[in-house]
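User: Second chain of the day. Same drill as before.
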Amino acid sequence: MEDVSQQISSFCTLIKLKRFDDHTLRTLQVILESKDGRLLPQLRKRLKEFLRSESLIAIRQIANKPIGHVLSVLDFFVRAFAIVSDVESCLVLRYEALVMRDSKSISYLDLRVSCTEWLKFAQDAFDNGFYSITSKACENALLPFDVKGGARGDNLLENGAIMNKIQILRDIAIRLSATHAVQVQVSDYMKQKDLCLKQSSSCNRAHYPASISFRNGIKQRNVRNLLHLQNLRRG
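Assistant: Same format as last time:
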């Protein structure tokens, strides 16, 4: 365990020193090759939290750096998150990198994201259950296609097949995203309903003795009135 602690310390130091390279990634892989399966979930959780925190810091610090450097750092963290099995963070940074490349492609043509790249990302996001980001990626993948249904490139038949595949994936993702949203709303409603029922039940139990007292008071008053009426008649 001491060796693992030292390795984690070395990895964290490399990240703090901005050593975003293959050596740092290999250090991370060695850490996760621990043979003690009981420690692995704890290690992954600790490393995920550290990488998420450090990636945010790094991205803020490189905001004004050249695009090549920014993409290199993003790629490093994408690979690091993949190693620790943080699928969500991995997809988020992959998406950020693709969007950034697309936004800069006007000035740097070699950065243009191809339709195939968008489709691959959309498929990965879909396979991991991220339907909302899948539909966004599909929309970006469809941008190269013109209004008439054509596309940039010579093979119109192949491009048409790709466009059809993207549209189908997008439509499925939109439906699944909507279904998931409804399921979440239903789940929230049922939780709220259960809470209200519990509160109502507690409220009823709390006021039940008072209700009995009120009813007993009415009975006692009626008895007194009856006795008073009987006394008047006797008099």
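Residues 1-108 form one domain.

User: Great, on to the next one.
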